[in-house]
Model the fold of this input.
Amino acid sequence: MNEYEDRSMPIGLAMMLAEDNAAMRNFARMEESDRQAVLTRARKVGSRDEMRMLVGSIAGGLAGRVGDVAGGSDRLEDPRLR
Done:
């Protein structure tokens, strides 16, 4: 894998961010290390619903806690259900 592929944004994440202004704004405001952690997590997403939950977490402002959004958990919890 070349450097471009390692740093590229998964298309599913890009599409969902484009549909959610709050998530796009929060993602853009993240520290670079937090953005990279979200990108890493997005590359491991296995379904549209899981990507939707990841983007929803970013929109909800939980992205500052990278472990909650982009961490090692295989399952993401929808913060709106709390």
Helices lie at 3-7, 11-19, 21-29, 32-43, 48-59, 66-69. The chain has one domain: 3-72.
